[in-house]
Amino acid sequence: MAEEHGRKWDRCLADSARTGFGVGVVFSRVSFHTRIASLCRPNVARCVGSGMGLGMGYSNCQHDFRSPYLLHGHMVKVDQFSW
Amino acid sequence: GMDVKRICFTSLSLQKCLCGNGAAQPMQSCRRYTSAGDSGSVAGKIVAASLLTVGGGVGGTILYAKWDPKFRAAVEKGVPYSDQLFEMTIGPPPPPPVIPLPKKPVKVEPLQISSVSEASKDSKQPQQMKEKKVAKEEKPPVQQEAPPLPQTIEGENTVVLLFSSEFMQRFSSVQWSHAHVGVSTAEECKECEHEAHAHVVKERPEEVVSARLAAQDRCFNAMLHQTEHVKFLKTTFLDDTLGSSAKLTLQAIGAQEAALSAIANHTSKLKEAMDAEGPSDKTSAQWRSLEDALNERSRAADEAGAALLKAKEELEKLRKVINAAKDSKIDAARPQILAAEENLHSMVVDLDRAVGKVQTAQMEAKIVSQYSELVNEAKAQFQKELDSITPEIQANWKGLTGKLSPDDLNSLIAHAHRRIDQLNRELAEQRVREQIHIEAALDQQRLENQKTLDKAVGTAISHSREQMRLEQEKKIEDVREVMEAEMRTQLRRQAAAHTDHLRDVLKVQEQELRAEAQEVLSSKLMEQETNYRRVTQDQLDAFTLDMNAAYARLKGIEEAIDSHVVAEEEARKAHQLWLSVEALTYSLKTAVADSPTEPLETAAKAVRESCADNEFAVALASALPEESLSRGIYSEASLRARFYQIRGLVRRVAMINETRNSLYQYFLSYLQSVLLFEPEQLAPPTKLKPEDLDTFKLLSYATYSIERGDLELAAKFINQLTGEPRRVAQDWLKEARLTLETRQVVNLLSAYANAVGLGTTQAP
């Protein structure tokens, strides 16, 4: 369980980072191409985006920590010929 | 070392050794030598050493061969000329041990059944000898013999042959031919015996009968033997005399015949001379021949007389012998005697006949001579008268033919006339006295005739009497023979009957004896059998007793063994259990660092198997947690290590529970853990108070326990955690629980195994 805890934390951080950056990047990109470009400088956009992302990540983490018994499943491809 | 050297020196060349070229192991020793010094001295040393070794080997072999002959034999077999060497040095090999052969059984000579043949032999011998002797004697009189002679002799033989037993007839004529005169009787006997033996062996069943017959014949023959002997002698004597008499008789007869012929000759010559009035020289020759004839006749007459005498003597002798033989009263010789008598008689008859012939011839001759004398006398008278009348005439008949004068003639005629007258007168006178003379002559003649008649009649009578007597005797003899033959046949029949009777009796006896013997045998057998049965029964009983005892013991032993086996089994099981438990215990120790132990499945299975029939153990074994079986459990050390990790984590999430579980709280908790310092180890109280249920305290207690090795207490304390720390420590707790459980079970099992082992193990 401790490992799980650690894993959770890893996931959390990773997710947060990912989502943060990802959202940020996407937001920045999107905002760059849309008309709301006036108020959105790339950095700002990225910050906003990453902020949003981080926030999303945070809440995800929290949710994840709060529901400890929810398992994260992995999709495992089964080789069809290896019975 | 020595052997190696020998091998080296004998099997390989010296050069190789010297050069050290040989790669094989034995060459190492050579190399040592080569490496030692220069080759010359080494070669010399090698040669010397080799010689020494060879000599030593040979000497040793010889000595050992002297001591052990088997070794010597083996060496001789293997090495070609070693036997010579051995012989030279040690000497000849020892002789092989003599095994005394069992003596050959002495040949049992076949029993010789000789008596029969012997008996027959005896009876045969004199026959044969007699036969031969008679054959010899037969030879001389054979030429001019009187017919009955050989027949009688042969008849004699046949009779004698017939006399012998039938058994004789079985022998082939070969035996007769074998028997030569002059062959020793012993040889004959042997021959005959062998023949007899052979015959005997072949014809055994008939032998019994014939043996009996022969036994009887033996009696005859025994009797006969003596009589035969005597008879033999007698008969030979008889035969001798017979032969001699026959000879002499023949001689006499011959002489008589000769005399007869001489007389006849003389008479005829005389007649011729009388009748012939021829020339004087012829007459003188005639007279001379006449004289010769006369001489001849006289001589022959004398001879005849002498022969006659001799013959008569001999015949007398023969008669005496015959009488003697007759007196001895040997029945069997009778025919011979009879034959001899007959011969005698015939001889006598012939002799008499011849004598009679001679006598008649003589008488005739006498008459003729008388007549010739008369004629001569008359002639002489006439001549004398003539001379007296005519004295001048020479009495020369030759001159008479033409020289006579008429006077002489006249005187001669006158004389002749006178003579004629005289003669007429005498004739007349004679005629007158004729009758008287004739009567006288007739009387005389009658007398003489009577005499001769009487004599002849007497002789004829005697002859005929003799003949009749002989015939009678012969008849008697024949009858006797016939009777004898009949008696013999009857006796033989009796013998055969006796034999049959004996055979029957013997058969009966045999059967009786057989039955008796069988009875005895069966009784003995029965006895033996009962004895045997008793003995075997005893043996069986004893054996059964022994067997029972043995069986009982065996059973006891088996029981003991079984119980032992059971106990052993128990012990084994206990040991096995203990071993498996130990294995299990050991497998608990196989946890390496942080990896769990190997799965306890196998060990647990072993344990289960080793205590299959023990419920407690089985229950215990099955009480092992699944995880430990499949995955194994962590060692205490690893748990301890892990605990520290958990501890840190637990400290960090100490504030989080179901209600306070936001990230901010997480942060706060983390802060708390950083800022809060509690003693790492706190000795846990014996009683827990509610304020002791603080996370950190609990952790301290648990640390303390774990440091002291008390996992259980630590686990207990950890179990008291709540909220997130509990969740975090959950797996550790699980592991700890698993380990504790397993350990507990193992300990129990071990204790149980120990207890069981202690129970089963017996102190020596």
Any key phrases for this structure?
heterodimer; A: 83 residues; mainly alpha; 2 helices; flat; B: 764 residues; rod-shaped; membrane (chain B)
Structure, described:
The complex is a heterodimer of chains A (83) and B (764). Helices cover 69% and strands 0% of the residues of chain A. Chain A has 83 residues and is an all-alpha fold. The longest helix of chain A has 32 residues, at 2-33. Chain A is flat. Chain B is an all-alpha fold and 764 residues long. Chain B is rod-shaped and about 260 Å long. The interface between A and B is medium-sized, with 11 and 15 residues. Chain B: This is MICOS complex subunit MIC60. Chain B: Belongs to the MICOS complex subunit Mic60 family. Chain B: Pfam families: Mitofilin. Chain B: Residues 301-328 form a coiled coil.
**Could you tell me the strand content of chain A as a percent range?**
under 5%
Helix content of chain B: over 70%
> Which chain pair has the greatest contact?
A-B, 11 and 15 residues
Radius of gyration of chain A: 18 Å
**Mean pLDDT of chain A, rounded to whole units?**
73
Structural Rg of chain B: 81 Å
Main sheet properties of chain A: none
What is the approximate shape of chain A?
flat
- Ranges of chain A where pLDDT stays below 50 over 5 or more residues in a row are none
List the helices and strands and how they pair.
The complex is a heterodimer of chains A (83) and B (764).
Chain A: H1 2-33, H2 42-66
Helix pairs in contact in A: 1-2
Chain B: H1 2-11, H2 14-19, H3 27-36, H4 39-67, H5 69-78, H6 82-89, H7 115-142, H8 148-163, H9 166-170, H10 173-178, H11 185-202, H12 204-275, H13 280-328, H14 334-389, H15 406-588, H16 601-610, H17 615-622, H18 626-630, H19 636-652, H20 663-675, H21 695-707, H22 711-719, H23 723-760
Helix pairs in contact in B: 4-5, 7-8, 7-11, 7-12, 8-14, 12-13, 12-14, 12-15, 13-14, 14-15, 15-16, 15-23, 16-17, 19-21, 19-23, 21-22, 22-23
